[in-house]
């Protein structure tokens, strides 16, 4: 099980200095990667911009978006921004992508919420072509096409979501899959579907299967308020997510085993409070 830790880019009050200190500590303590969560219509730090800063503040640790809402970006912009972060990180970026479930994230960027699935399918094909260095954008002269990234960055993709479409996209386009909040029990059925579809498609490599656990090693209750705010759109399910956060040493250690039993091979602990000492507290428990 590869274990990473989220940076608190969506936790209220998080500063850029906290993000960079958090990432430096995560690298020193031996986490496999740092990850972000993110959405548009929330007062948070942007995932890819934050990871660009993290890339400059670290040298070895992996970087994972978990997950960027792909269709909220124009295809060429996402290809260029992700390619830039991958270049700054010298190949350490994994791009987790999904479509999201909140219409409020699509309204500010004037993108079509109802058509996001079809847009995402087109975008995934576009990204692969752009990152191969193919000419995908109109140039300065009639009929001219140009690439949008200076060199093929080779960015692994993880697909988020629990639908049949998410399973298909994972097998067709990605290095693996990433699950949102909800715990091992919610992830397990999708993991089984992906493993079966992966084998049927003849993919010989092992899929990356990333779980997410919200945590607070200080048992801070204000973390519950943040999660209920972040997932307010989900109604009563926001309480389920908040109640599922792990806050004691016993539960933090146990959830690693639970995700492993459910068939996942990577796990990110996503913070609910923005105290950099949480990095060391978690490391002492799970590394």
TrEMBL record:
Q: Which InterPro entries match?
A: Luciferase-like_dom, Luciferase-like_sf, SsuD_RutA_monooxygenase
The answer to whether UniProt assigns keyword Flavoprotein to this entry is yes
Entry keywords, A to Z: Flavoprotein, FMN, Monooxygenase, Oxidoreductase
One Gene Ontology molecular-function label: alkanesulfonate monooxygenase activity
Q: Which residues form the Luciferase-like domain?
A: 1-279
Asked if the record carries the keyword Oxidoreductase, the reply is: yes
Q: Which SUPFAM superfamilies match?
A: Bacterial luciferase-like
Q: Which Gene3D superfamilies match?
A: Luciferase-like domain (3.20.20.30)
GO biological process entries: alkanesulfonate catabolic process
**Pfam families to which the protein is assigned, alphabetical:** Bac_luciferase
Q: What is this protein called?
A: LLM class flavin-dependent oxidoreductase
| Species in which this protein is naturally found | Amycolatopsis carbonis
């Amino acid at each position: 099980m590869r274990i990473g830790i989220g940076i608190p880019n969506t936790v209220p009050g998080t500063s850029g200095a906290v993000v960079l200190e958090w990432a430096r500590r995560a690298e020193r303590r031996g986490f496999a990667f740092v990850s972000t969560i993110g959405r548009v219509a929330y007062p948070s730090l942007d995932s890819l911009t934050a990871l660009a800063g993290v890339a400059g503040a670290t040298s070895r640790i992996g970087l994972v978006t978990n997950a960027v809402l792909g269709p909220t970006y124009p295809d060429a912009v996402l290809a260029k921004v992700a390619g830039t972060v991958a270049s700054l990180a010298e190949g350490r970026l994994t791009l987790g992508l999904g479509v999201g479930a909140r219409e409020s994230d699509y309204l500010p960027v004037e993108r079509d919420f109802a058509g996001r699935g079809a847009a995402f399918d087109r975008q995934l094909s576009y990204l692969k072509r752009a990152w191969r260095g193919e000419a995908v954008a109109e140039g300065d002269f009639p009929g001219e096409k140009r690439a949008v990234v200076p060199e093929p960055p080779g960015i692994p993709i993880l697909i988020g979501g629990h639908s049949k479409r998410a399973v298909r996209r994972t097998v067709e386009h990605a290095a693996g899959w990433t699950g949102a909040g909800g715990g091992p029990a919610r992830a397990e059925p999708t993991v089984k579907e992906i493993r079966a579809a992966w084998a049927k498609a003849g993919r010989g490599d092992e899929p990356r299967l990333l779980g997410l656990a919200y945590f607070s090693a200080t048992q801070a209750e204000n973390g519950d308020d943040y999660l209920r705010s972040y997932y307010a759109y989900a109604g009563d399910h926001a309480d389920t997510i908040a109640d599922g956060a792990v806050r004691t040493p016993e539960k933090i250690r146990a959830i690693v085993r639970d995700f492993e039993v459910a068939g996942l091979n990577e796990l990110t602990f996503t913070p609910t409070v923005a105290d950099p000492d949480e990095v060391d507290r978690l490391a002492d428990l799970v590394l």
